[in-house]
């Protein structure tokens, strides 16, 4: 895949980057080099390779799924202008 000058300008516009006409050829070369590298990666045989989370084998760290800051509903809603049963009351906006 090759990127032309119009595509470079379009990418710059989408990224909200100001690109002058003098910069377009350089950026075109850079983008084409990146795409060529990605194409090389697609040629690598990864059949049977397990996904990794790190370069060293390790188990993922997990935490206990417990509530550690519960039972403070009164503190959470104490500054609200209107509450009911530990819920915030808001004005109706849809008829």
Automatic annotation (TrEMBL):
Its EC number is 6.3.5.-. Heterotrimer of A, B and C subunits. SUPFAM superfamilies: Glu-tRNAGln amidotransferase C subunit (SSF141000). Allows the formation of correctly charged Asn-tRNA(Asn) or Gln-tRNA(Gln) through the transamidation of misacylated Asp-tRNA(Asn) or Glu-tRNA(Gln) in organisms which lack either or both of asparaginyl-tRNA or glutaminyl-tRNA synthetases. The reaction takes place in the presence of glutamine and ATP through an activated phospho-Asp-tRNA(Asn) or phospho-Glu-tRNA(Gln). HAMAP family: GatC. NCBIfam families: gatC. InterPro entries: Asp/Glu-ADT_sf_sub_c, GatC. The keyword Metal-binding does not apply. It catalyses: L-aspartyl-tRNA(Asn) + L-glutamine + ATP + H2O = L-asparaginyl-tRNA(Asn) + L-glutamate + ADP + phosphate + 2 H(+); L-glutamyl-tRNA(Gln) + L-glutamine + ATP + H2O = L-glutaminyl-tRNA(Gln) + L-glutamate + ADP + phosphate + H(+). The keyword Protein biosynthesis applies. This is Aspartyl/glutamyl-tRNA(Asn/Gln) amidotransferase subunit C. Belongs to the GatC family. Keywords: ATP-binding, Ligase, Nucleotide-binding, Protein biosynthesis, Transferase. It comes from Bradyrhizobium oligotrophicum S58. Gene3D superfamilies: Glu-tRNAGln amidotransferase C subunit, N-terminal domain. GO terms for biological process: glutaminyl-tRNAGln biosynthesis via transamidation; regulation of translational fidelity; translation. It comes from the Bacteria. PANTHER family: GLUTAMYL-TRNA(GLN) AMIDOTRANSFERASE SUBUNIT C, MITOCHONDRIAL. It holds the Pfam family GatC. One of its GO terms (molecular function) is asparaginyl-tRNA synthase (glutamine-hydrolyzing) activity.
């Amino acid at each position: 895949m090759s990127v032309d000058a119009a595509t470079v300008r379009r990418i710059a516009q989408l990224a909200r980057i100001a690109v002058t006409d003098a910069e377009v050829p350089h950026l075109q070369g850079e983008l084409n080099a990146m795409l060529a590298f990605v194409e090389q990666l697609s040629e690598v045989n990864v059949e049977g390779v397990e996904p990794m989370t790190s370069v060293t084998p390790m188990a993922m760290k997990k935490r206990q799924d417990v509530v550690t800051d519960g039972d403070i509903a009164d503190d959470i809603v104490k500054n609200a202008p209107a509450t009911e049963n530990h819920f915030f009351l808001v004005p109706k906006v849809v008829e």
